[in-house]
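Subject: sequence -> structure tokens, single chain

Hey, anyone have a minute? Need the predicted structure for the following. Not urgent.
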Amino acid sequence: MTERKITCIICPMGCSITVKSEGARITEISGNTCRRGAAYAEAEITHPERTLTTTMRCDNGERLPVKTDRPIPKEKMMDCMELIDSCTASLPVSIGDILLADVFGSNIVATANKQES
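Reply:
Had a minute. Here:
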């Protein structure tokens, strides 16, 4: 049996959750104060995902803040960073513009407005 402790990030409570598992099967989740915490813990153990925030090079040489519009698999974070680093955003860009579509199930979107200089 494996036991893993994680801190829930779903709400400000920050519950310390203990997850016990045997192989790929979760046998017990404890320490959460709500059902959302239990769902978060199960997802974090079985298939962790993260929202990626970073910057992308613009065609004028500046950097533009970007993020994934939904979480991507945690194991794909570095692959996603390499893809973003290989691309250049063409200005002008507005918040929410999709700069790269369907990257590991997410879109890379601008999080700032940037005009040509």
